[in-house]
Amino acid sequence: MMMYKTHKFDHKVDEDVIFASRDSEFILPKYKIPKEQSDSKAILEIVKDELFLDGNARQNLATFTQTYEDEYIKEIMEIGMNKNMIDKDEYPQTAEIENRIVSMLADLWNSPNELTSIGTSTVGSSEACMLGGLAMYHRWRMKRIAEDKDISKPNLVTGPVQVVWEKFARYWGIELREIPMEEGRYYMDPDSMLEYIDENTIGVVTTLGLTFTGEYEPIEKLSHALDKLEEKTGLDIDMHIDAASGGFLAPFCAPKIKWDFRLPRVKSISASGHKFGLAPLGCGFVVWRDVNDLPDDLIFHVNYLGGDMSVFQLNFSRPAGPIIAQYYQLLRLGFDGYKKVHMNCYKTAQYLAKEIEKLGIFEIIFDGNPNKGIPAVTWRLKEDAEVSFNLYDFADKLRSRGWLVPAYSLPKYADNVVVQRILVRQGFGLDMASLLMQDIKRTLKYFETHRVVSHLNEEDVASLNHTGR
Ligand SMILES: *Cc1c(COP(=O)(O)O)cnc(C)c1O
Prior knowledge:
- By secondary structure, this protein is an alpha/beta fold.
- Helix content is 35%, strand content 15%.
- The chain has 11 helices and 15 strands.
- The radius of gyration is 24 Å and the shape is globular.
- Keywords: Decarboxylase, Lyase, Pyridoxal phosphate.
């Protein structure tokens, strides 16, 4: 949650109040609960009017999360609105649906034994990553305690991760060893990974669909490097795969890539249902290879149909709607449907990559190849591009036509590299992409005749930034 500072509660000046236009007598305070009741319809209008100030979600090419829902999903969300996901006893069929999805995902991610894999739904990938990370941490602690070894200095080795792993490390007192990117290498490679690992390493987290570029990390290679390390030193290092985006993409569109439970070192996988799982917001999952990979001391017990059900979660109450909608999508689309929807997104991303490259001044960093990453395009300005604008200026200007195309610098050691990224999701097809290209060309023309004399920087367009930093 964003943390908000509170505002002055006493409002005497006009600016501090909101008005309903049809009745100027009707005055509402902005930062204080109004004293009196109001007409629901009038308030609804006010709230809706205020929301017009938000950007248009369908033109938001920054976010990874779903912005398109069909009518049936809306119907399901309504049914699920007042069902609390935690009340397994009161809503046993909802619990059964969650259980079925976990099995479907264990199967999709090539669990060696569906009967002994275990998992849960979550509010999103962040919660799922926290749970995967915590289980990893506790496995390491248990092993160290059994060997009578020090447990005071745990560290976690990762590539360029999403902010949730920084949170995980800070909240639980674990040293984050995030391998720095360098110009031209924007992921974790086996050699640099090995340099950071020691006996205090609780595990390695790699990402299937990096936030910064959209690329998949070379998970199979990393896993083999860890096998070699074990042969040489006896250090047995577990992997958690943050497959927030890729977990619902690679199985359908790049089934040959080995990133999942086919690699024995992979003990847990997390993914966002509300990204490429095509569920509405509020839906994620984490699955462990085997019930033994989830330490018992992390599990709590709730009543379930008069029986006992184990739960592992950070949240307690949570709406069931997004999970039921996920179930609907899995049943409705099936394997072929997911493949079709996602392949269309890849096609659009690749079209954009080609068109952007043709402009001559941009270098494509990731081109939306389904065997290499998610349906996204990432580019930078060529070093020798003779232009008067930078990518922050460019992003800002595109926003005047409603397009949110974030520009940002890469993390440390590559932070002199500024990139721009488009994420293609369901609902953003070739026709919209060609409209975007027209606006991109129009913007370049504009900059030809209007030279930029004072550049914007990262802070100026911070609201456009969606890198999870
Ligand atoms: C989006 C994302 C997250 C966080 O997921 P939420 O579902 O937004 O909580 C974590 N890791 C990666 C790689 C992501 O892309």
